[in-house]
Prolyl-tRNA synthetase associated domain-containing protein
Amino acid sequence: MESPPEERKLFSFLDNLGILTQTYRHAPVYTVADAQEHCSHIPGGHSKNLFVRDKKKQRALAVVDDSLTVDLNALAGKIGFNRLSFCSTDSLQSMLGVLPGSVTPFALVNAQVPKGGKPALTVVLDKTLMSHEIVNFHPLHNAATTAIKPADLVIFIRACGYEPVLLDIIPTNLDKF
């Protein structure tokens, strides 16, 4: 199967950074439950990726271990935002260039910060997820999963112009996602 154009753009960017990845093809997955069913054979940590905003329209991409339940209010406080809600599909597409079900830190390749510019969002990385030897994300679409070393993910994020915030995402029973 030939790679979609958006995937080729991502892989070219990663290649230019000298980052090695491995990609696994599978049926499209739209939820964490779908991914656990179709991708559990892929080694490494798996994620849920939350594209959220507060009332001031500050945005964040939270990249969290898929086993954790996220308290959005606690997350908001940790990153200095007000109450969080999910961004609209239009905002997701216009800012990150992906569809719901395909949210991924790799989408930052579509939202690179111009030299000297200010990042349009905060990137939050979960310490639990980043403790794995390998972490897995969609390569801008949900019919594949790409494995990358956590240190290389940070290199990629910085090359896109963002300084990720590494946090302990403490699971709770509030605002489950």
Observations:
- Residues 138 and 145 are 5 Å apart (CA to CA).
